[in-house]
Amino acid sequence: MPGSTIQEWKSFLEKCPDAHVLQSTAWGELKSKFGWDTSWIIAGTVGAQVLFQKLPFGFHIGYIPRGPVSTSGILKGSPDWDEFQEKLNGLCREKRTVFLKIEPDLWEGEEAADSYPLPGYRTSSHSIQPSRTIVISLQESEEEILARMKSKTRYNIRLAEKKEVSVRQLEQIEPFYKLLENTSDRSEFGIHTLEYYREAFNLFDSTGECKLFQAEFQGEPLASIMVFIRGNRSWYFYGASSNKHRDRMPTYLVQWEAMRWAKSQGCLSYDLWGVPDESESTLEDHFMERHDGLWGVYRFKRGFGGELKRTCGPWDKVFFPGLYSLYLLRSRIRG
To answer: What is the mean pLDDT of residues 81-102?
Structure first.
């Protein structure tokens, strides 16, 4: 097998302190406990954590979330790139991989993004992670970050403080999950199991890379979020809120306190993780009337004054064209 060990991957990532959290060993361990096989490929300065989802009859779907990673900052064009691709292809063939999906950790417009799509890969219309997001800079002072927000958002943060909403860090996942279940029932979106969130929290909290924040009024939980950090970046992945005391604006204050914590940990950005994959003009023209999918959260997230960004990709490399066609047909039917 052309793969590397988890210890080798940990050592490799020590040279890539700002690699995306989805390439961390903790994320690989999390996914391996919930239906995925995790493998690692290293070729000199280039590497990737590769997830494989099992299919019937010994087939797999391969997935590289927010990778590959390079210790030199150079991917395609580096002297190790061809060796990396050779090892990756060998692993995929050994796993009987129908196709491999890559979602690079690159923003559209970045110079490195010009290296994609790679030879042998095809553009995909199906992404697993949100393609478009809002990223808030934490490099300025707290006063400057607040000043950059929409006036209504800034007002709501201060209103929550005036209305006696407080925010604290949680040590257990159960209060967060209880709010999450209520949010899921109210908004009709799917969530993971309690065990999934508990495992995610335990894996990352043990290294200081994840915190749970809960906004409360007189001890009653109103909103809770799970935030991850790695290197100089932070991400808001999961959030939940109660339908009670919404006039106290707890969701605004809990986000602000999470941003302040991330900044105190040396993070330079806070990724709000997911808005509709539309142009800024389309988003601004329709966010008041659309509430389906991620449209429901865009109005909230836009107020924090971040920059709208879109990742490049995704791309698929096909190893079994017939089975891949069935996958595309199934995706269209489900979509």
So the answer is: 96
Summarize pLDDT for 258-271 with one digit per residue, the tens. 999 999 999 999 99
Q: Assess whether 74 and 183 both reside in one domain.
A: no
d(CA 230, CA 209): 6
In sequence order, what are the residues at sequence separation of 6 or more whose Cβ sits closer than 8 angstroms to the Cβ of residue 133?
A: 271, 272, 273, 274, 275, 308, 309, 310, 311
Contact 284, 58 (CB under 8 A): no
Cα(290)–Cα(72) distance, integer angstroms = 43
Question: Do residues 58 and 190 both lie within one domain?
Answer: no
CB distance 84 to 40 below 8 Å: no
Overall average pLDDT of the 151-172 stretch:
97
Instruction: For residue 228, give the nearest of 21, 23, 69 by alpha carbon.
Output: 21
DSSP label at residue 194: H
Which of the 8 DSSP states describes residue 18? T
Give the type of residue at 84.
F
pLDDT value for 79: 83
Closest CA to 248 of 175, 186, 161, 170: 161
Instruction: Assess whether 117 and 152 both reside in one domain.
Output: no
Which residue type sits at 335? G
Q: State whether 31 and 90 are in the same domain.
A: yes
Q: Are residues 220 and 78 in the same domain?
A: no
Q: Tell me: the pLDDT tens digits for 104-159?
A: 999 998 876 766 667 789 999 899 999 999 999 999 999 999 999 999 999 999 99
Within a domain: 1: no
Same domain, 295 and 154: yes
Say yes or no: 323 and 223 in one domain. no
CATH number at residue 213: 3.40.630.30
- Cα dihedral 97→311→191→264 (10° resolution): 120
118 in the same domain as 49: yes
Q: Give residue 26's domain range.
A: 6-127+312-334
Within 13 Å and on the Cβ side, how many CA atoms surround 195? 3
